[in-house]
Amino acid sequence: MLKIDSHTHILPKRMPNWSEKFGYGDFIYLQHHKKGFAKMMRGNQFFREIKENCWNPELRIKEYAPFKTQVQVICTIPVMFSYWAQPMDGLELSRFLNDHIAGLTDKYPKHYVGLGTLPMQDAELAIRELERCKKIGLKGVQIGSNINDENLNEERFFPVFEACEKAGMAVLVHPWNMMGEKKMQRYWLPWLVGMPAETSRALCSMIFGGIFERLPKLRVNFAHAGGSFMATIGRIQHGFDCRPDLVAIDNPVNPRNYLGKFWVDSITHDPLMLEYVLKLQGSKRITLGTDYPFPLGDLTVGKFIDDMALSKKEKEDIFCNATLEWLGMTKKELTLHR
Predict the structure, then answer these.
(1) For residue 40, how far is the Cα from the chain centroid?
(2) What's CA 301's distance to the chain center, in Å?
(3) Residue 29 lies in a domain
(4) 144 lies in which domain range?
(5) How far apart are CA 23 and CA 108, in angstroms?
(6) Sign of the C-alpha dihedral computed for residues 32, 38, 39 and 43 taken in this order
(7) Is the pLDDT of residue 337 over 80?
């Protein structure tokens, strides 16, 4: 059975020191301080240590082989978005990252499908780079759950979504810049609590803002099984029903009606939760995802799904069919080089 991991992250091994190049800001760059490891530096501050599998495409392929997973959808790490940067600098950074990913998909077409990143702080530049992403062979883009604390339903972002629909480019929404992050650093709460809330924030913003009504052919996947959205859909619908004056001000459609009209990945770490998401979404709208190579991801690449009592069709949907439909690809197209 073909297996496609719809959610993985990658960086170039070498990057400029963007803060020195642009003369401001805490951009991410890498310090290769020992063999097989690098420090991600945010300006002069240590952010995270990463391993070689974050940049070595051949090592990644070897690490996936034991899990019988042939294809990875690759995109940058969200901290690279840098939406706070000056727009032209954001465009230059995006182009650098996108060219790297396109180079990998060209060199390893059997193993990698690419998503780009956009300078979302400027819609015109974002659309320009989106169009270039398509020309260089990327199948979609990854964006953050908010843009400099602004929700995704803000009208100035709508032209970007409209351009994605028109170009047939898939969208992955990934949590970043977590709400309340600075006030809950202890216990890794930004990642454990903030990220799920951010994804639900993005989903609710797009639903209540009418994005899916206005753009019914837009193909959007929400990371980490939609965050806390699925677990709180009852509360979300109840709020819509009891206070439409506050909730339904831009879109009168019940939020539950959108279940199955977008995609989420399978990163629940919990079979019971995945069974629940399956009931809400159906197998055609759940993509195999891992968040590889980071420790909070599903680094056994869906083994818990293999162990679940699902039908062959459900597993095939999750392992490949849902991702193919989200990306706008066919199995024949993906396996052309195999």
Answers:
(1) 20
(2) 16
(3) no
(4) 4-10+56-334
(5) 35
(6) positive
(7) no
pLDDT band at 335 (very low <50, low <70, confident <90, very high): low
Strands (E), 217-334: 220-222, 263-265, 286-287
Instruction: Return the closest-CA partner of residue 135 out of 88, 90, 98.
Output: 98
Sign, CA torsion 196/199/201/204: negative
In a domain, 70, yes or no: yes
List pLDDT tens digits, range 132-159.
999 999 999 999 999 999 999 999 999 9
Separation of first and last alpha carbons in the chain: 14
3-state percent breakdown (helix, strand, coil) of the chain, nearest 5: 50, 15, 35
Q: Residue 123: which H helix or E strand, with range?
A: helix 123-135
Q: Say if 149 falls within a structural domain.
A: yes
- In angstroms, the CA 98 to CA 128 distance is 13
pLDDT tens digits, residue range 61-103? Answer: 999 999 999 999 999 999 999 999 999 999 999 999 999 999 9
How far CA 11 is from CA of 50, 87, 232, in Å, comes to 10, 21, 34
Residue 99: which CATH number? 3.20.20.140
In the chain, the DSSP E strands lie at 4-9, 28-34, 37-42, 45-51, 71-75, 112-117, 140-144, 170-174, 220-222, 263-265, 286-287
Q: How many CA atoms lie within 13 A of 44 on its CB side?
A: 1
All residues at 6 or more sequence positions from 229 whose CB lies less than 8 Å from its CB, including other chains: 199, 200, 203, 204, 222, 236
- The domain tally of the chain equals 1
Domain assignment present for residue 283? The answer is: yes
What is the pairing mode between strands 45-51 and 71-75? unpaired
CA distances to 16, 144, 318 from 60, rounded to whole Å, are 23, 24, 21
